[in-house]
Amino acid sequence: MGSRLRDREAFTAWLMILPSLIGLIVFYLVPAVRAMSISMSSWNLMSAPQDVGLDNYRAMLADGEFWRALELSAYYVLFNIPLQTATGLLLAVLMDRLCRAIALRAIVLLPFLLSNVLVALLWMWLLDPTLGWVNVMLQSVGLTTQTFFSSPVEALATVAAVNTWRYTGMISLLFLAGMQRIPRSILEAAILDGAGEWQLFCRITLPLLRPVMLFVLVTSITGAFQIFDTIAVATNGGPAGSTRVIVYYIYENAFKFHKMGYACAMSMALLFIMALYTAIQMRVFRANESDLAIFNFDLGVVDHAITAPSKTARRVGLGRILAWCLLAALIAVTLIPFWIVVRTALTRPDDLYASTGAWLPPVLTLENFRRALGYVSDDVALAAGGSGSDVNFLRSLLNSMIFSGLVVAGQVVFSAMAAYAFARLRFRGRKLLFALFLVSLMLPNIVLFIPNFILVKELGWLNTYAGMVAPFLLVWAFAIFFLRQTFLSIPRELEEAARLDGASYWTIFWRVVVPVSVPPITAVAILSGVNAWNEFFWPFLVASADDMQVLTVALQAFKSQAPQGAPDWSGLMAAACLAILPSFALLLFFGRFVVQSVQSPRKK
Question: An example Gene Ontology cellular component term from the record (predicted)?
């Protein structure tokens, strides 16, 4: 009987993992192997591939543009990561010392909830050489205007600064979560020994944040090397190739020049570089160790550290006033761009030149929203400087809702099933299989997108919902890892009581585990929805038809269709406002879950 029970447990585990395993094999492992195979061929998608051995790799090593693209990617990382990490750490310290309100954390997270496409469009308007609010402010204090995205010298740094604005809030919350796991008793002991704020930070807080710092640097630099959306919208690799980073160069060779073999060779080189970097980072930061382990404290102390206010000096002094001013300035930098977008959306196109730098529109109008929604005739839209009604905003909105809804439903259900099997059920090969899912997190998107694009094309799924959702529907390794850690914390007594009542493993999962895990499952659903809603690269590749465009792709098309040569800023900002609304609604109704979803679950 014991053998039959173990067999039933293993059979149930494999059934629960099967959908995610199919997704892992079909859209991660096989594409990775296929990318390596394609990298040794010459293939333009029109004729049969021809085996060329290592010729693509030799050509890559001799390609000056390839090395230039890698160099630009390295420069981008050097611009972006130190600024992003330092600003996020500073914001986390200010929130930890001054204010831990959920509302404040929701505000700093807001830019992260926007897509890279929206962020790029927003800052293209703010940094416009003629009408942009930033240049108007520079002129008001006697400084010269800057061309930003249009300058070969400034463009790459501008892209780095824009993405710093988007990701700083998320990074600050990761650091804040790490700070709140540091027992207050350690800080209080240091204060009794006469340590000041700066000594507390340098001698205690920063060393104990090493695991969080490792996670931030590995994920941030991995993401920075894969930057694509912002460049595709704002610069198209220009001006003069000054922002043609490695992923954009791979994209050009694969989908513009149809050199699939050469593009895959470069993507494999990028995979090697990122894997080497990650291994070095984990060695330098001692990934398998935690400095907190040297302190003897229990979970009650950790809970106190998370919930109790700091007992550091609270008297009002010059330093504290300056800290509050700095926090207010960072919040202003987060919120002001949103108001400028709203003000532009409510301004008539003819009034833009006369109202540059104004905080309120001279004449309030909703006509821009009507043009963005396609509710006016082509002649009226063109007369207003728009692009006509070629972009069906409502259809794109519906496409985004369908795409996001399918992805969320699939990822939440299948990831929860797989996570439960890995956390609670015993079967052979469990550790090895779980390791394969974790390895899939390290694969760069560009390595997978080329073989997956070929697969979708061969299946005839281009410009279909099936083609858009296929790589995302069945598996999301991050969600499996996240929920596994949560399910491990559930008391086994609940399951044992259910088994005594004759409940099957499926019944225990749906009737016991899922109901007590609603908050983390909700967090996964929110993160999944945000990622799907903001996805640009994959829908841009496989669903470019007008009736299949998702919102991010439609906004890019809307921006590029202005017949006068300059973007229709009023209509574009109105469309951006409509696209931002779901993010505001998410924060309004699920603010606490959204904030908690970017913080690591506590082990119990």
Answer: plasma membrane
Cα distance between residue 8 and residue 16, in whole Å:
12
CA proximity to 248, closest of 271, 266, 273: 266
pLDDT at 293: 45
Q: How many CB atoms lie within 10 A of CB 308?
A: 11
Which residues have CB under 8 Å from 109's CB, separation 6+? 169, 170, 173, 587, 594, 595, 598
Task: Pick 54-358's CATH classification: 3.30.1330.40, 3.40.50.2300, 1.10.3720.10, 3.40.50.300.
Answer: 1.10.3720.10
- Rounded CA separation 577/575 (Å): 5
DSSP state of 286: T
Selection from 31, 9, 30, 24 nearest residue 435 by Cα: 24
CA distance 36 to 44: 16
pLDDT for residue 465: 94
**Cα-based distances in Å from 511 to 453, 508, 516, 517:** 39, 5, 9, 11
Which one-letter DSSP state was computed for residue 300? H
Give the Cα separation of 473 and 244 in Å (integer): 31
Which residue positions in the chain have pLDDT lower than 70?
1-6, 282, 285-317, 376-391, 560-566, 591-604
Residue-wise pLDDT tens digits, 195-212 = 777 777 888 888 888 778
3-state secondary structure (DSSP) of residue 2:
helix
Give the whole-angstrom CA distance, residue 75 versus residue 40.
Answer: 29
What's residue 598's pLDDT?
A: 58
- Give the pLDDT confidence score for residue 382 in this predicted structure: 66
239 preceded by cis ω (within 30°)? yes
Q: How confident is the model over 83-113, as pLDDT tens digits? A: 999 999 999 888 888 887 778 888 888 898 8
Residue 216 has a pLDDT of: 85
pLDDT at 522: 86
- Name the helix (H) or strand (E) containing 436: helix 430-440
Own/partner contacts of 66-70, CB < 8 Å, gap of 24 or more, are 66/246, 66/249, 66/266, 68/241, 68/244, 69/244, 69/245, 69/246, 69/248, 69/249, 70/246, 70/273
Buried-exposed string 313-348: b where 16+ CB fall within 10 A, e elsewhere: eeeeeeeeeebeeebeebeeebeebbebbbbbbbbb
